[in-house]
């Protein structure tokens, strides 16, 4: 039995390597960029894929594992982005301090909203967060002292412990953050907390009989998703360096939904695949297709169709292609 | 005083628009046990269809609305037939996401099929108004209020007195028992989707003259219709209608007397907090879960 | 206890005057009975008698209109379970099973068992997220415990397989394993023999008897299958139409005229099995 448990832990280490590999794959873009093979804008797109993945990982925990829909993710992300810009630019706070507040404040709001909305049935959270998202967008437009209103808000690259990051450095940092985001997400999902989420989602009755407090775990899942969203928002602010209130609307929240569903809800790395499809594919491929490529929201058509198709037929999402490929490769090599 | 009258009339008008949209949502909720987030988007797409048709053929706004509603009917049938039927065994969360997928699809399709430029849709009755207690009220506004009341009344009559209505109520109460009793539940669901979509089209076209026909036109209505259902309670057909009118009146009062920018946000917040004390809405019944 | 009912030393569960109505119909009418420590106790009745309702009241999935549910908890103190929220019941040492098992399809057998020990985990979500030593140690401890239980139930070879697609007999054992993980004082089972064939029912009877001795647990069955009940129960309570008919040993129940009358109407010769 000892042996079985040991091999189980080896299996875990194996999965960590997968996540590290994902980070390395993204890092490969840097030398490619230095060699002039891919342009700076591609790097920014990939950087966006990374930060959207981070947000997506959190949303996946909330939706794919705990079974709760939020339509306000963009709002929290935007709030963190604006806070980070405000603290670093306007108040000249050191980045680490700014980080604490930019993440902390939305979390406190998130806990409050969670405690209120999650007492009621499933549909309620979706509606409440839809409303919150709209309210936040209104706040972003109105409080222009703080957000710059429609003219937007700008911020610079990160300056940490005196080290000034540039675009390449930021990208590299983000790839590392992604690895950690994946690993921590994996740990959460494979722990008692993760099992509680999944029990809550599958069977309220079983959850209650086993002593799982529904409200506590719903709020916990919501807070975890909020934390990932805020980190993603800060990453957005310091890579894109500009933020407009209209960015943080329902469209973006629906993008996150697409990222989670299309990528694959039952896998931690699903959102990475989802983000590649929802963010990179339109930017790098769709835009270049004649006629249809120029229509705004063309990507939405694909996202919408894929969501329905995935949910109806390919429950495991696009990431299944990768897991199936891995199985195939293992078979070809001779397998372990 | 005249301002107050103005506010009340415009509240009743927008309340009618919300009511029609929320009836669509509650009909689908009761018969398919899912929250339809695509009600607004379906209305939007039908409104575009009606507007473009009107421009192409030169018919009146009223006729175009009928065309729009007919299109909505077909769209509703199609969605149920092609998508919802295959999702029979999906969880409520999955069904909600599917409707969100439909929202994305229609949001992307509209600019592709209709162009990205916002269009104008005229009122049913232009340029005529009447004076009531010092306030100038448009005929069109009164017409919209009437349309709202009449459609709501028709639907309730149908629900209570016709065979179809009975089939809907039985399917809503207990789908399995309904099937056993020979109620054509598949047709009921399809019919419900068609009617809901049609109502979405009507509310969009009633709204259109006050704004423009563009991709985001119904976003506000969608959210308001959902909140109307939350306020009125998802357990009855009538609750959301009541919620819709109350929501419209409160929002306009807040908007006019407190703050025009924050009126909506304030209303939503008040309702979402009110729900903590009355979780089943104004006309709510508690459901006992069988284990 | 205000009313100061009499608790004998060997009692573990005392149901007193339980009543509940649904929409004007009395589903359970002033039912009282007692279960003793380390007994295997059965609650029987024809369909619609109110067994499942009583079951749900005991486990606090329903609150009764009247009556008390006294239980001797892990600290050997008497508590009225009606004062408890559903998710707090397991902490007193009472665990239930479900007619449709309510297992998590996407998790392995092992993980499903681990859900049973949820209330024992002391590490916080943060510690688990960062795989801090305390969290890792705890997880290892409970995994070992789960493997032990699975060995007893003969399903340890499938520990890492998903619950999805497993045969019904295996799933029943997984659920039973899950209850054992909560270190219960009493396991209350909702129609455990439902869907099992004769061989599986005999195996279940065996397992329940072993659990009673090896795990020092009281077993309470709500059952329809007379075979199982007559075979392993020490005492039985028979109800019909929400009322108690009789309480006693299997032999006494079998020979009780009220019970025979109530059951002869539903299925002939059922009691003769």
Order of helices and strands of chain B: HHHHEEHHHHHHH
Shape of chain C: globular
Q: Proportion of β residues of chain B?
A: under 5%
Q: Based on CA inertia axes, which overall geometry of chain B fits? A: globular
Strand elements of chain B, count: 2
Reading side by side through the largest sheet of chain B, how are the strands ordered?
Answer: 1-2
Q: What's a concise summary of this model?
A:
The complex is a heterotrimer of chains A (336), B (291) and C (273). Chain B is 71% helix and 3% strand.
Give the helix/strand layout:
The complex is a heterotrimer of chains A (336), B (291) and C (273).
Chain A lengths: L1 H26 L1 H6 L5 H26 L7 H18 L4 H23 L4 H21 L1 H4 L5 E2 L4 E2 L2 E2 L2 H23 L2 H11 L1 H6 L4 H27 L1 E2 L6 H14 L6 H15 L13 H15 L6 H15 L3
Antiparallel strand pairs in A: 1-4, 2-3
Chain B lengths: L1 H31 L6 H19 L3 H22 L9 H23 L14 E4 L2 E4 H23 L1 H11 L1 H6 L4 H23 L11 H14 L5 H20 L5 H15 L14
Helix pairs in contact in B: 1-5, 1-6, 1-8, 1-9, 1-10, 2-3, 2-4, 2-8, 3-8, 5-6, 6-8, 9-10, 9-11, 10-11
Chain C lengths: L10 E12 L2 E12 L3 E5 L6 H8 L7 E7 L5 E3 L8 H4 L1 E3 L12 H8 L8 H5 L3 H20 L15 H14 L4 E5 L7 H17 L3 E6 L2 H7 L2 E6 L2 E6 L1 H5 L2 H8 L9
Parallel strand pairs in C: 3-8, 3-9, 6-7, 7-8
Antiparallel strand pairs in C: 1-2, 1-4, 4-5, 9-10
Helix pairs in contact in C: 3-6, 5-6
Task: Report what the structure shows.
The complex is a heterotrimer of chains A (about 325), B (about 290) and C (about 270). Chain A has about 325 residues and is mainly alpha-helical. Chain A has a single domain (about 1-335), classed as ABC transporter involved in vitamin B12 uptake, BtuC, CATH 1.10.3470. Chain A has 15 helices and four strands. Chain A has helices at about 1-25, 30-35, 40-65, 75-90, 95-115, 120-140, 145, 165-190, 190-200, 205-210, 215-240, 250-265, 270-285, 300-310, 320-335, and strands spanning about 155, 160, 165, 240-245. The mean pLDDT of chain A is about 90. Chain B is mostly helical. Chain B has helices spanning about 1-30, 40-55, 60-80, 90-115, 140-160, 165-175, 175-180, 185-205, 220-230, 240-255, 265-275, and strands spanning about 130, 135-140. In chain B, strands 1-2 form a two-stranded antiparallel ribbon. Chain B is globular, with a radius of gyration of 19 Å. Chain C is about 35% helix and about 25% strand. Chain C has ten helices and ten strands. In chain C, the strands form two sheets. Chain C has a six-stranded mixed sheet with strand order 6-7-8-3-9-10, sandwiched between helices. The radius of gyration of chain C is 19 Å and the shape is globular. The chains are: A mainly alpha (about 325), B mainly alpha (about 290), C alpha/beta (about 270). Chains in contact: A-B, A-C, B-C. Chains A and B meet through α6, α12 and α14 of A and α4, α9 and α11 of B.
